[in-house]
Design goal:
Layout lengths: L1 H15 L2 H27 L4 E7 L14 E5 L5 H7 L8 E5 L7 H7 L1 E4 L5 H22 L4 H8 L18 H38 L2 H6 L4 H43 L6 H9 L2 H14 L2 H29 L3 H25 L6 H8 L4 H8 L6 H29 L9 H9 L1
Parallel strand pairs: 1-2, 1-3
Antiparallel strand pairs: 3-4
Helix pairs in contact: 1-9, 7-9, 7-12, 7-13, 7-15, 9-11, 9-12, 9-16, 12-13, 12-15, 12-16, 13-14, 13-15, 14-15, 16-17
């Protein structure tokens, strides 16, 4: 045990003393936020205003197709249709011509079939879809008017229905769309973080083992410690590195949530009289207020349990898969040969991750249950479920099975590691690995 601690300490200190570790740990959250902002800006930068001439023979759409920052409609007299078609190719600043036929006998289907959009350049699917939606809104309104309804009645028909749900088990007063959205987002983030870190740090263990094996340094180390102690020391050392990063990031996230939650409280106190409903729209489009509301929702969840389950399942899942990666690194001579074996480590994680997307739609369904119980997928699936609430007995059962599977995987990996770490020149096969495990 002493040797394992010494090796783990060396691995840990070697990693955390690197400038890259310090910079990445402190800046990674900012880089992620910045990357998201950059993607949003790139989408925004690729937007442009499209202008279309409109010839409305039906008379239904006059001044009803509203121009905005992305779409501009210019109404023209019907008499200009032929000349506009002829000169459309050479028009500057005009992207196309929208021709709407006459409406005969309230035959809206025929009007839709005969409506044409002539363009002189390539336009995106989104632009074409926006025009279709604008036309659809006007036609829908005209169809309802034909039934004898006025504008007020039309607006009342279009009014959405908000269903308020109360979870009597979790004793939540309300489980609205915002709460579900926050849970869904948190579930996806935690699941993806665990998936990526298990792979990234697992590969780091594999490369460390492979490097020492190729440099023949391991032959000197093995003379002082047992192969099992060396393998476990490396796994635990890198595990502590990852855990250190997570603790720092979790602390930063909680502090940020508390700070934004203070802003949320102040925002609610300053709501205008009788304006809580009116302020909803304003808050929805204010990024600062939205962030404050999200933080408030997060802090109302069982955050200590979420953090505890996240850390436990990450640690156990990481040790489970790192043992597998360490065995792979010891069994081959170069990184090229690792490709035939790493699939066995990546595939179960991918099944857990993509299967967990269905978990968010039905957190208590049979797929959600089994993915969060089976040790190969539970490190990802259980973390995806935990924001939605998981019965205590399922958490205990899943943890117990994962602990048992982790010990079994470490035992199997140690058998492979003990033989493979000193094997050179022989290309490992599945049959050969099976022999090492049985011996």
């Amino acid at each position: 045990m002493k040797n394992i601690i010494l090796i783990a300490k060396r691995e840990f200190l070697t990693q955390v003393r690197k400038k890259s570790f310090i910079i990445l740990t402190l800046l990674a959250p900012l880089l992620i936020v910045g990357f998201g902002a950059l993607i949003a800006l790139m989408f925004k930068a690729n937007e442009s205003t499209h202008s279309f001439n409109v010839i409305d023979k039906s008379g239904l759409f006059q001044n009803k197709l509203k121009s905005d920052e992305n779409l501009k409609y210019i109404y023209l007299p019907e008499a200009n249709e032929a000349s506009l078609k002829a000169t459309l190719r050479d028009m500057q600043g005009i992207d196309g011509l929208l021709i709407i036929p006459k409406l005969e006998n309230n035959d809206f289907r025929k009007l839709e079939e005969e409506t044409k959009l002539l363009v002189n350049k390539k336009i995106g699917f989104g632009t074409k879809n926006d025009i279709s939606i604008d036309l659809e809104k006007v036609i829908r309104s005209e169809k309802i008017k034909a039934l004898g309804l006025n504008e007020t009645q039309i607006k009342d028909i279009d009014k959405g229905f908000t269903l308020k749900a109360e979870n009597v088990v979790d004793e939540k007063t309300e489980d609205n769309d915002m709460v579900f959205s926050v849970k869904y987002g948190l579930s996806m983030i935690l699941m993806y973080v665990v998936f990526m870190f298990i792979i990234i740090y697992g590969v780091r263990v594999m490369r460390s083992v492979l490097e020492e094996k190729n440099n023949r340094v391991v032959e000197i180390i093995i003379s002082s410690v047992k192969p099992f102690e060396l393998m476990m020391g490396k796994i635990i050392g890198v595990t502590m590195v990852a855990l250190t990063q997570f603790i720092i990031w979790i602390t930063m996230s909680v502090v940020a949530a508390l700070f934004l939650n203070t802003g949320f409280a102040a925002m609610n106190e300053n709501l205008p009289v009788g304006g809580e409903e009116a302020a909803v729209v304003t808050k929805a489009f204010d990024p600062q207020n939205l962030a404050a509301e999200v933080s408030h929702t997060l802090l109302e969840m069982n955050f200590p349990l979420i953090i505890f389950v996240f850390i436990v399942f990450f640690l156990l899942g990481y040790i489970f898969y790192s043992a597998m990666y360490a065995a792979i690194g010891s069994a081959v001579d170069n990184e090229t040969e690792t490709q035939q074996f790493t699939l066995f480590a990546i595939l179960p994680l991918m099944i857990g991750m993509y299967g967990s997307i269905t978990v968010t739609n039905n957190p208590e369904g049979p797929m959600a249950f089994w993915l969060s119980i089976i040790p190969f997928t539970s490190p990802v699936a259980m973390i995806a479920r935990i924001p939605f609430g998981v019965p205590a007995w399922q958490i205990v059962l899943s943890t117990a099975l994962l602990i048992g599977a982790t010990f079994l995987m470490v035992f199997i990996a140690s058998k492979v590691y003990k033989v493979g770490i000193l094997m050179y020149g022989n290309k490992a096969t599945l049959k050969e690995l099976w022999k090492w495990i049985k011996n």
